[in-house]
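Consider the following assembly input.
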Amino acid sequence: MATSWQATLAAGKVLVIDGGMGTELQRRGVPMDEVAWSGTAVLSHPEVVRAVHEDYILAGADVIITNTFGSTRQMLGGAGFGAQVEEVHRRAVALAKEARAATIDRVAIAGSLSPSPPGFDRHAYPPPEEELAVYRESAQLLANSGVDLIALEMLEDTTHAPLAMRAALETGLPVWLGVSSRRVDGRIVRFSESASEVLLADVLDVLVPMGPDVVTIMHSEIDAVSETLTLIRDRWDGPVGVYPESGYFTKPSWNFVDVIPPDDLAREARGWIDDGARVVGGCCGTGPEHIRALRSTMDTWNAGR
Ligand SMILES: [Zn+2]
């Protein structure tokens, strides 16, 4: 049922979402593309993508996110898959739906959309009109394929992120605004290493007024979450979520070094709930065991409401 995630939030309870997709595929032996990262896995390893979705649902996720982070034309095109942009989106949503049909039908499906640059190169973006068309194409394909909401991921600047947000809002679906941050020299800045001088506060000042349904801190360092929550709370009184990463990325692979143990993530998440977060999950580096731990902790918390 598409509205159950909204009913959970409206009741003041905590929603558990899934964990990392690309990194979980990598753990299961799926190679990551140098340019499109996990985007092409829905074509090359559909059964693994479906199995990861099923495992997250069975671990307790109320919302799963499609493997479309790397599926925009600007990411797939560079990997030689420009002719398959539509097929990749449709297959990705279909695999999430198949996983839901095989497990728990009240789970919601979020379509991931990211303005990550072509080849992870921030100098390689197309001109603005072309770039907006890229995000519109992905957002409409996700909507037409039947996702319940759009999860914008790694929005972290004031140039490209607003274009992706505009495209997502145009679908009329609920939009989760996912920002990424880390702490540098005592300041909360965008996550990506280049141009880290961009303050997340400035990014939020542009994106929050555009009207998301939920604001999430995703693919962010756990150490930066508390301060980022404060930045969001200063600007937004709607639902807030947290799904951080753990480990680090060296193109095209994730390094599973010092990944936070599941029980430690659940303990951290308990603190974020105290700070007002109502959506918790994991991003890169986290897996089904993290979601199982979060589910258990949040079931206890929800039972007290
Ligand atoms: Zn991530």
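Residues 20, 219, 245, 283-284 surround zinc ion (CB under 6 Å). Ask yourself how this observation constrains the way the partners meet.
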